[in-house]
UniProtKB/TrEMBL annotation:
Family designation: Belongs to the UPF0751 family.
Entry-linked Pfam families: DUF2325
Residues forming coiled coils: 156-272
Keywords from the named record: Coiled coil
Protein name: DUF2325 domain-containing protein
Length: 399
């Protein structure tokens, strides 16, 4: 960018219009204070050529028009004043460049810079030193936001891969379940056929026995005895098959339950993806959380007891994304009971994955939380998907 003429405070006390502000700040103002959809809507009112223009072309058109007092420049100026009335009211109370700089530093720390950027750029008392500092800060923030966007794309790809793997596991479970049901039905059909054949044979023998009762021979007695023994054997087999069928039904129910749980974990992962890709809430601490795309643990400390060793860092990063802090105990004999007691006293709530923790550590944690009135959450699985689902449910129900 070429050099621009130094900007001097205005002696008349009137705010600068958009086309009067420091030319270096025009592009940052357009890019920070307007979404691309809003820019396209404003530009469509004055430039018919932006209908098929790319996002960059729309931005470039708006930036160029903002440097002139034309129709689009005036529309954008009015929109900025309308969107940032609160920031303009605060800026009106500041009478010197130093005060503007102090306010700007507060805005940068909070991450809410759109309103202060416009209010300071158009302020009559903003001098060259102030505006140069604002330009430098907003320039570096744009680099930081670009790096964060690339990180979010990487996280999206990882989450998509995990989702596909989870979907494949669910499909495999469904296939095994269907095969189990088919095997069960085939066994049941065979058992019924054998039972009918046995009953027919027994009826025949009973008929013969009644007919020849007066002259029952040793041979008929042996036949009857063999039939009875065969019936007893088949009844025994029937009982065994019945028990096997009951076991298969229970296994099928467990498989179906696991499939439902995995689908719920998949849904939690998809929701987490949307959370990671959603824009930061502009209301920050004033947000009630009901419609917020970024559920907030509000800095609470979570103790994770047990779990997979190589996933510790992933557990911690996941909780951090929800604005929480995670501390860890290995759930075995390595860290010890004394350290477990110390960590539980620091935590706001305790989480135990039952598939990867010692029985003693789990019981100690549950007993401690009950005695001290702290939340205790038992996870079925130590995987990231299970923790993601619980965190999402936790922050949403808490709101």
């Amino acid at each position: 960018m070429g050099a621009t003429a130094p900007v001097k405070p205005l002696s008349n006390g009137k705010r600068r219009k958009l086309w009067q502000v420091d030319e270096r700040l025009i592009c940052p103002i357009i890019g920070t204070c307007f979404s691309i959809e809003a820019l396209r809507a404003h530009a469509n009112r004055t430039h018919s050529s932006v209908e098929t223009a790319s996002d960059f072309e729309v931005h470039a058109t708006a930036t160029a028009s903002a440097k002139q007092s034309g129709r689009l420049g005036k529309l954008l100026n009015k929109a900025l004043d309308r969107q940032h009335t609160r920031s303009l009211s605060r800026a009106k109370q500041i009478r010197d460049s130093q005060g503007l700089l102090e306010w700007w530093r507060e805005a940068v720390q909070s991450g809410r810079v759109a309103g202060p950027l416009w209010a300071i750029a158009s302020h009559p008392h903003a001098d060259e030193t102030c505006l140069s500092q604002v330009y430098g800060d907003i320039h570096m923030l744009s680099h930081l936001h670009g790096a964060n966007a690339r990180a979010r794309l990487t996280q999206q790809a990882d989450a998509q891969q995990a989702q596909e793997q989870l979907r494949a596991e669910v499909e495999a479970l469904k296939t095994r379940l269907h095969q189990t049901v088919r095997d069960r039905d085939a066994n049941l059909l065979r058992l019924r056929e054998e039972n009918r054949a046995l009953q027919a044979r027994l009826d025949l023998l009973n008929t013969r026995a009644e007919r020849d009762q007066q002259a029952e021979s040793a041979e008929s007695a042996l036949m009857l005895q063999g039939a009875v023994q065969a019936m007893e054997r088949l009844e025994g087999e029937r009982a065994v098959l019945k028990m096997d069928l009951t076991a298969e039904r229970e296994r099928a129910d467990l498989l179906m339950q696991r499939a439902d749980e995995m689908e719920q974990e998949r849904d939690a992962l998809e929701s987490a993806i949307q959370t990671l890709l959603a824009p930061t809430c502009e209301n920050s601490g004033a947000c009630d959380g009901k419609q917020c795309a970024h559920p907030d643990l509000k800095g609470r400390c979570l103790l994770y007891v047990g779990g997979v060793t190589h996933l510790r860092g992933r557990y911690r990063d996941l909780v951090k994304r929800y604005n929480g802090r995670l501390i860890h105990h290995d759930g075995g004999v390595g860290d010890g009971a004394a350290r477990l007691e110390s960590l539980m006293s620091r935590a706001d709530l305790v989480i135990c994955p039952v598939d990867c923790v010692s029985h003693d550590a789990c019981l100690r944690s549950k007993k401690y939380c009950k005695h001290n009135g702290k939340p205790f959450i038992s996870l079925r699985s130590s995987g990231l998907a299970s923790l993601t689902r619980e965190l999402h449910t936790m922050v949403m129900t808490r709101h």
